[in-house]
Design goal:
Layout lengths: L13 H4 L2 H17 L3 H18 L7 H21 L3 H6 L4 E6 L2 E4 H26 L3 H10 L4 H30 L10 H32 L18 H22 L11
Antiparallel strand pairs: 1-2
Membrane topology: Multi-pass membrane protein
GO cellular component, one term: plasma membrane
Keywords: Membrane, Transmembrane, Transmembrane helix
């Protein structure tokens, strides 16, 4: 059976030992640090730290390879779009212009623009792996219990857990429907033209939507029959108390965020400028 994308992968690692609430707070601190700064030194540190955290999580690269390839394609398109719509953004930000070569009109390639695009992509490289790691190392039920523990309503927490559990379910349904349609003679392989494959994909999307709506109704009825939401509190089978590793990790991430804020804004400018 094919490996399911963006579903929980059980491993023995320091990342898996953290509670879901700890990982969520760390992701928020991490994302805040990466998004607020354009300091290249901080971004490089965050990217290298992401690689290290991935290494100790025991998640294999091949298990998320398809998602990473899709992200790389998105980043390429995003970089091209940024340059097309604002080819002089780097020049305006850094205040200098070192032209490498001309393309015509206002479109020229400068060191400043390339450096700006490099920083933009580094921000994505810092945040996206952390988000993927959060999804694949967090058990949905345990995550819901942790969210409720830090003060979020158990109704919202349970909804988040259902959404995370639905990711592998919809992938299995897609594969089963695709195999059933191919058995009926609908070709989705590369042998067909792209336009034909897109048209044939409609024979999968419609049944997938209908089956998803049917599952939603079944789950809603089951929860209603069990009086879900009647009481203000509930117990959790997968609940885990915060341990020493959670407190230490949260402390380190808070320190990292504070250092990022200080380095980024101490001179009143979010951008690290190597051209001055």
């Amino acid at each position: 059976m094919a490996v399911e994308m963006l579903s929980y992968i059980e491993r023995q690692s320091p990342v898996h030992r953290l509670t879901g609430g700890t990982k969520l707070l760390c992701l928020l601190f991490w994302s805040s640090a990466a998004m607020m700064t354009y300091d290249t030194r901080i971004l490089i540190f965050l990217v290298l730290a992401s690689v290290w955290i991935f290494a100790i999580s025991n998640i294999k690269l091949k298990e998320i390879a398809f998602v990473l390839i899709f992200i790389m394609l998105f980043l390429l398109i995003n970089s091209i779009a940024v340059y097309v719509f604002s080819p002089q953004e780097g020049v305006e930000i850094y205040g200098t212009s070192h032209v490498l070569f001309e393309l015509g009109g206002r479109y020229n390639v400068t060191l400043e623009e390339l450096f700006y695009l490099f920083n933009v992509n580094m921000k994505y490289f810092a945040v996206i792996p952390a988000a993927i790691l959060f999804i694949v190392t967090t058990n949905p039920s345990e995550f819901a219990a942790s969210l409720n523990r830090i003060g979020i309503s158990y109704r919202i927490s349970y909804s988040v857990a259902l959404a995370l559990r639905y990711i592998p379910d919809i992938q299995r349904d897609f594969r089963n429907i695709a195999l059933a349609q191919q058995a009926r003679g609908i070709d989705l392989s590369r042998k067909e033209k792209l336009t034909k494959r897109i048209k044939n994909a409609g024979s999968i999307i419609v049944p997938l939507i209908l089956s998803s709506l049917d599952k939603i109704e079944i789950i809603s009825n089951a929860m209603e029959l069990r009086a879900f939401g009647k009481n203000n509190k509930r117990t959790w089978y997968r609940a885990r108390p915060f341990q020493k590793i959670d407190y230490v990790t949260l402390t380190l991430f808070v320190i990292m965020l504070l250092i990022t804020i200080f380095i980024t804004f101490h001179d009143g400018n979010r951008f690290y400028n190597p051209f001055v």
